[in-house]
Design a protein that fits this description.
The chain is about 30% helix and about 15% strand. With about 140 residues, it is an alpha+beta fold. Strands 1-2 form a two-stranded antiparallel sheet. The chain has a two-stranded parallel ribbon with strand order 3-4. Strands 5-6 form a two-stranded antiparallel sheet. The N terminus is likely disordered.
């Protein structure tokens, strides 16, 4: 299902206050869902009790983007299902979202978080990066 949106001839400056004002009118449908916006990244947090609202929330975000001459890039969007660490089985929410991949870890503001709320992968990546930098400095 392709959405066509009307193109407006206004120019948006995504720096400073205009960005804040423009993104300020993007709200969730369900008051129990949360939407966090950081620069050009947005994170929709949906508790399991509201899992059925995911599609409607994404539709609202796409409509908002369209009305602001933007586009939600579903190929760059991912879904992560966070479960308790003690639970052994993998939890899957049905139905899966169209064109959005489910992942086991996600990078949020530079920090890698797993579907068990672990930062082990992040720590491993930081240590590897430091080791590479240290080795490069030693070679100099």
């Amino acid at each position: 299902m392709n959405r066509k949106c009307e193109t407006h001839s206004r120019v948006r400056d995504w720096s400073g206050e205009l960005c804040y004002i423009t993104a300020g009118d993007l709200k969730t449908i369900n008051s129990c869902n949360y939407l966090f916006k950081y620069a050009d990244d947005s994170y929709l947090i949906t508790p399991s009790a509201n899992a059925d609202s995911r599609t409607a929330e994404l539709t609202t975000i796409e409509d908002w983007a369209c009305s602001n001459n933007l586009k939600l890039n579903r190929s760059k969007s991912v879904e992560i299902i966070i479960t308790r660490q003690r639970r052994k089985s993998h939890v899957s929410l049905m139905p899966t979202l169209r064109d959005i991949a489910q992942v086991q870890s996600i990078k949020i503001l530079g920090v890698t978080i797993s579907d068990r709320l672990s930062v082990n992968q992040h720590v491993t990546n930081v240590i590897a990066s430091c080791a590479q930098t240290f080795h490069a400095l030693r070679v100099l």
